[in-house]
Amino acid sequence: MAMGWRRRMGPVLAVLGLLALAGCAARYELPEAAPDALAPGAPGWDGARAVMADGTALATARWGRADDPEAVFLALHGFNDYRCGYAVPAPDLVGERALLVSYDQRGFGDDAQAGLWPGNDRLVADAATMVALVRARYPKARLYLLGVSMGGAVALQVAADPATAPALDGVVLVAPAVWGWSTLNPFYALSLRLVALVAPGWSPTGEGLDRVPSDNRALLAAMGADARVIKATRMATVKGLVDTMDAGLKAADGVRVPWLAVYGGRDQIVPADPVARLERTLPADLGRLERFPDSYHMMLRDRGRAPVLRAIRSFAGLAPVAPSTPAAVADVGVCRAYEAAARPVEALADPVVAGDEARDGGAVGPALSGAGS
């Protein structure tokens, strides 16, 4: 009976691209260092953590030029991921003249309430606070909001907010998760609402969904071993994700800053139709959607990520990165666990290739099976 129910619900879970981990062969616990919630007051950022208006401290990481950068990317991670989701692409993205700042969105990573959905409004408010903090720290730098997957849905809402958009020089949407209620099959939408209502705490792992989010095996192994990457997702959180995706799509026509969206032809998590709808909704005179046929959902961390990173640097007005000039790294901390996954493409052996699914009997292991990007 349980297996039958799981098979019936499988399409709902798979179609939403909602689970981060499947078939993890190895797990280990990273040192716990959850930031504290401080007394409510003025927001602040010391480079290692950012304090929101309600006193909640969110862990941050930085890559690149921390003093007088030409451009700053404020990076929002994807569903079930955290600040280290940018450890692989950051060095090549920032080069010598830029800085990338990422932070644990509330409900993820080292947040004390990790695994619980904080609400769309809170995610957007935190992102707006981070924009203000980074802009205050770097008033002369060009500031780009960079959102991956779920982070893209949050970024759309921030970029459409008249109170926040003027602080931005542009927004970059990477495999944006905009599969909201208005784009869902009515059966899937009803099923998810019912399950979230009657079993909000049910937390499936997504094992067996056979989704390949990237061809970077070193990355998938590192994420599988990373205790901060959420493995089992509460159905109430999944519903919250869809709420955010829906809000992101609805906000798209209000974006009033230059935008760039990138999407992979091998994305098995976010389907093409909602992304095409997003392209039609965003103001055409302010940006464009670039498609990369060989990229997966985690396109910034794929083996073939270089063309995508070049497109983003070009959008931000940055010169091409010289291979002999790696970026400086600051405040990375636990993200060093992803150093192997960030090796040059030619050093990453044994990629995921077509046919692996058949040979391995399903998911590539240790593999990710959802939108944890």
TrEMBL record:
<dbReference type="InterPro" id="IPR022742">
    <property type="entry name" value="Hydrolase_4"/>
</dbReference>
<dbReference type="InterPro" id="IPR029058">
    <property type="entry name" value="AB_hydrolase_fold"/>
</dbReference>
<dbReference type="Pfam" id="PF12146">
    <property type="entry name" value="Hydrolase_4"/>
</dbReference>
<feature type="domain" description="Serine aminopeptidase S33">
    <location>
        <begin position="68"/>
        <end position="303"/>
    </location>
</feature>
<dbReference type="GO" id="GO:0016787">
    <property type="term" value="F:hydrolase activity"/>
</dbReference>
<dbReference type="InterPro" id="IPR000073">
    <property type="entry name" value="AB_hydrolase_1"/>
</dbReference>
<dbReference type="InterPro" id="IPR051044">
    <property type="entry name" value="MAG_DAG_Lipase"/>
</dbReference>
<protein>
    <submittedName>
        <fullName>Alpha-beta hydrolase superfamily lysophospholipase</fullName>
    </submittedName>
</protein>
<keyword id="KW-0378">Hydrolase</keyword>
